[in-house]
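Predict structure. Chain length: 168.
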Amino acid sequence: MSPASSILILCRTNSVTSTMIEALLNANEHAGWRAFSAGPEPALTVNTHTMSALKNSGISARFVTSPKCWHLFEGPDAPRFDVVLTVSEDVSWDGMPKWNGVPRLLHWPLPDPLALSCTPAERAGLFAALLDLAATRVEAFLEEEREAVRVGSIANDNSWLPSGRVGT
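Prediction complete.
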């Protein structure tokens, strides 16, 4: 089995959207991805609405990690990421640490469920809707990655060439 690809998901406080996407990817243990999340100003704990939305959707708390500062993922001993994904508008590429390797940089402009004034019940609904949207984006991402691998393997398949004709 090939090693898992790795992705770092970033949002400012690493307690809502990035945590959701990290949990969604890591809960899909056969997807071939290992997810991490962080932010420049990590909260002390994961938002309680995030935890409730994940729990209500059947995602185990074992896939949720504490908020982390993105500086934990820089330096020679840090993991190499295949993809770095931002999920909030207030995280700038310019101020980011230097990641190991040359990851692809992606941005998913997802809504902030904390940006609106609302009742606790409405807030829970916003978090559930955000999790559904994030799950849809994750599935689309995984499908795009599978298709890229498939197309790449076809493009690099020289088995149909007559023997001795490869590279000539």
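Summary: The CA atoms of residues 9 and 37 lie 5 Å apart.
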